[in-house]
Amino acid sequence: MLDSIDFAKYVLWRTQELQRQRNIRYPIGPAKLNTIMYICEGILLAYGINIIKEHAQAWDCGPIYPRVFKWFSDYHGFPAAVSVCSEEIRTYLEKYKAIQLIDRSLIALGTRTDEELTAWSRGKSSPWEQALQAGHGLMSSPIDKHVMARYFAKLHKR
Fold it and tell me: Which of 19, 34, 82, 151 falls between 20 and 30 A from 12, CA-CA?
């Protein structure tokens, strides 16, 4: 399984690659990165692919991967440019046939705003909302991967 920071680095690197290939700008910041990671993970889970060690948590601003959040803090800002992604990470994702699903998600979500993605991720009956209910309203409640898998499978009619 991948560390959430390694997956974040892959998403940032791949977003830059897709921008160059498609000549489209996909602005991405910390909140958007976390939400895109959450949506990508949900889609992968719907296909039975569990690749991120860490569970996303339901924070007031939406789904957050705490280690990725801390990674931002360590940079005193945002490491927007990740110019390299290790071959090991790419090979791991290829092994699980995850790259095509991630690419489709990045292309579809890249032009969406932080606000649009956060609002969607916090929707009625979403895994984020269910995590808050299970945690009795406590922020930072873990978002169950099984709940994510069922929710995203239903969206993708799997």
Answer: 151
